[in-house]
């Protein structure tokens, strides 16, 4: 396990902020990565595999991808537009919301407990 974490750290260190765990909980989180539409889009991005590796590192028992999509409102340093030039698409981010497998029992207990409290007279 320490070797896997060290490898993931090296991969991510090389990516700078190209791959980020932007939200994290005990049950999953959201990983985002940079992509360019003219270079294969989000599925063809060189950062997709490191993003999926980060999910695998966090979820030892496997994971479920809940939702994927472009992260809105993201800007990166140096993305300013120059007056009189066409906007160049760069610095777009793709997000992957995931849930770790093996947490279903805990999650069901968390959901059912408030429901049981509501049913009490």
Return Rg in Å: 19 Å
| Largest sheet report | 4 strands, antiparallel
Strand content: 25-35%
pLDDT under 50 segments (min length 5)?
A: 1-15, 78-82, 84-89, 105-121
Strand order of the biggest β-sheet: 1-2-4-3
Tally the helices: what do you get? 4
**Strands, total number:** 4
- Which percent bin holds the helix content? 25-40%
Q: Give the overall shape.
A: globular
Spell the H/E element sequence.
HEEHHEEH
Number of domains: 1
- The assigned structural class equals alpha+beta
Q: What does this protein look like?
A:
There is one protein chain. By secondary structure, the chain is of the alpha+beta class. The protein has one domain (2-76, 88-119). 37% of the residues lie in helices and 26% in strands. It has a four-stranded antiparallel β-sheet with strand order 1-2-4-3. β1 and β2 (28-35) form a beta hairpin. α1 (2-15) runs antiparallel to α3. Residues 1-15, 78-82, 84-89 and 105-121 have low confidence and may be disordered.
Summarize the structure.
This protein has 121 residues and is of the alpha+beta class.
Draw up the topology in text.
Elements: H1 2-15, E1 19-25, E2 28-35, H2 41-44, H3 48-58, E3 63-70, E4 92-100, H4 104-119
Antiparallel strand pairs: 1-2, 2-4, 3-4
Helix pairs in contact: 1-3
